[in-house]
Automatic annotation (TrEMBL):
<feature type="region of interest" description="Disordered">
    <location>
        <begin position="1"/>
        <end position="28"/>
    </location>
</feature>
<keyword id="KW-0813">Transport</keyword>
<feature type="transmembrane region" description="Helical">
    <location>
        <begin position="265"/>
        <end position="283"/>
    </location>
</feature>
<feature type="transmembrane region" description="Helical">
    <location>
        <begin position="394"/>
        <end position="412"/>
    </location>
</feature>
<dbReference type="InterPro" id="IPR001851">
    <property type="entry name" value="ABC_transp_permease"/>
</dbReference>
<keyword id="KW-1133">Transmembrane helix</keyword>
<feature type="transmembrane region" description="Helical">
    <location>
        <begin position="418"/>
        <end position="438"/>
    </location>
</feature>
<feature type="transmembrane region" description="Helical">
    <location>
        <begin position="338"/>
        <end position="359"/>
    </location>
</feature>
<keyword id="KW-0997">Cell inner membrane</keyword>
<dbReference type="Pfam" id="PF02653">
    <property type="entry name" value="BPD_transp_2"/>
</dbReference>
<feature type="transmembrane region" description="Helical">
    <location>
        <begin position="289"/>
        <end position="307"/>
    </location>
</feature>
<keyword id="KW-0762">Sugar transport</keyword>
<feature type="transmembrane region" description="Helical">
    <location>
        <begin position="371"/>
        <end position="387"/>
    </location>
</feature>
<feature type="transmembrane region" description="Helical">
    <location>
        <begin position="223"/>
        <end position="244"/>
    </location>
</feature>
<feature type="transmembrane region" description="Helical">
    <location>
        <begin position="155"/>
        <end position="176"/>
    </location>
</feature>
<keyword id="KW-1003">Cell membrane</keyword>
<feature type="transmembrane region" description="Helical">
    <location>
        <begin position="73"/>
        <end position="93"/>
    </location>
</feature>
Length: 448
């Protein structure tokens, strides 16, 4: 889940496998034209996948320790944090880890998680979008007014809401990429403008209730009660993961570049199998598999493929890592930036529709409150760097789980909103501090 687009463990996009930049003090005296030891210079760094393949489990453990010591933490901090949160709240109140609460949690995180999924894309550029909350409320209002007030076909209203989100991203992206207005300023202004437009669309009514049997509500409330649904989804996920890993290893082997060892693939597949079937078992203990969660997972997998397996995805990582180098490599910087903002706003629209379905209405408060901060926090806490160039779509799921678990646990304990805000803010700050320290460690190790 934390692999880079090239398929290597922790390898930065655009960096050749197994090569580590030399620190400045290793430069030969006299500059680049000074004579060097050809034999020493020709000795390449050993690729981690070769160590795993040659040494087996011992090599796998050594590689894990090397990555942690060099600051390549990946999703490890957020996974540890999630385990700690569940253990703490579970010990305080046994109902927190009940199948009912965890099943409800899996539905409740979808709206915020969808928005965070779009935020991941813009953060990979090293930019920010402060308008996602207002955009989510605006698109929910568009759907509600068209389908409920004016009686437009629900599918047409749904498409119009999503197109509205894409148009918002296009407008903001043009101001940023073409005119040169900083993304912070553009989206901050957008946050105010789109919120005002939402209020204008809702009109004097202020609140429009969804009927409950419309398409958007069904996408959120539908739960597949048959146990085969949850277990089948888990099995399909594991099989697809294993197939993609084997296919990637075969492709890299045929190209003559380092590839994952069978042991490495087996360990990853076993861990995924345990997590997937444990989640399926938990969901089946209550009502079954929520459709909203299934849609969320599909979005994550598809967008993860886009980021890690397509040229477009590699261009996004390249821009976040070094914009001038990306421009010289022939990447259309303006178009890539605009398209990323369009993806972010479209995902905000998707999240806004799920949030509207959750409360069965679109109102003047839609997209307000702490939705913006929770969405950005979910992406950052999940492991996406605020500095650009490093992250994954799975960050949205992990971060949303962390924030959702904190809010759910504190609600069960009856803690005040003030404490919830402070604790969530502290967790966000901790995530940024860990990211900053990891980057510093990577630079010290010559890997950043």
């Amino acid at each position: 889940m934390t692999d880079d687009p090239t398929g290597g463990p922790g390898q930065e996009p655009g960096r050749e496998p197994g090569r580590v930049p030399l620190p400045e003090d290793s430069m030969p005296k006299g500059g680049v034209n000074a004579p060097v030891d050809v034999a020493a210079a020709a000795t390449p760094a050993v690729d981690p996948r070769l160590i795993v393949r040659q040494q087996g489990l011992k090599g796998y453990v050594q590689e894990f320790r090397r990555r942690v010591s060099s600051g390549e933490l990946g999703s490890l901090p957020v996974i540890v944090a999630l385990i700690v949160i569940w253990v703490v709240f579970g010990s305080l109140n046994s109902s927190f880890l009940s199948a009912q609460n965890l099943s409800n949690l899996s539905q409740q995180i979808v709206g915020t998680g969808m928005i965070a999924l779009g935020v991941v894309f813009v953060l990979l550029l090293g930019e920010i979008d402060l308008s996602v909350g207002s955009v989510s409320g605006l698109c929910a209002a568009i759907y509600a007014v068209m389908s409920v007030t004016h009686g437009v076909n629900q599918w047409v209203a749904l498409v119009c809401a999503l197109v509205g989100g894409a148009v918002v991203g296009l407008i903001q992206g043009v101001f940023f990429a073409k005119i040169g207005v900083p993304a912070f300023v553009v989206t901050l202004a957008g946050n105010l403008f789109w919120n005002g437009l939402m209020l204008q669309i809702l009109g004097s009514q202020g609140t429009i209730n969804l009927p409950g049997d419309d398409i958007v509500s069904k996408l959120y409330t539908t739960i597949y009660g048959a146990q085969i649904a949850a277990y089948g989804t888990a099995a399909v996920g594991v099989v697809l993961f294993l197939a993609s890993q084997l296919l990637d290893a075969r492709r890299r082997q045929a190209a003559g570049v380092p590839f994952r060892a069978p042991l490495d693939i087996a360990v990853r597949t076993i861990l995924l199998t345990i997590v997937a079937f444990l989640a399926a078992y938990t969901l089946n203990q209550y009502k079954g598999l929520p459709l909203a969660l299934l849609i969320f997972l599909i979005f994550i997998v598809v967008l993860d493929f886009v980021l890690r397996r397509t040229t477009y995805g590699r261009q996004i990582f390249a821009l976040g890592g070094n914009i001038e180098g990306a421009r010289r490599a022939g990447i259309n910087v303006s178009w890539t930036r605009i398209s990323v903002f369009m993806i972010t706003s479209t995902m905000a629209a998707v999240g806004g529709l799920f949030l509207a379905a959750q409360i069965q209405s679109a109102s003047q408060t839609s997209g307000s409150g702490n939705l913006l901060m929770n969405s950005i926090a979910a992406a950052v806490i999940g492991g996406t760097s605020l500095f650009g160039g490093r992250g994954s779509t799975w960050s949205a799921l992990l971060g949303a789980l962390v924030i959702g678990s904190i809010l759910s646990g504190m609600n069960i304990q009856g803690l005040s909103n003030a404490l919830q805000f402070m604790i969530t803010g502290a967790v966000l700050l901790a995530a940024v501090v860990i990211d900053s320290l990891a980057r510093r460690t990577q630079r010290a190790a010559g890997r950043a």
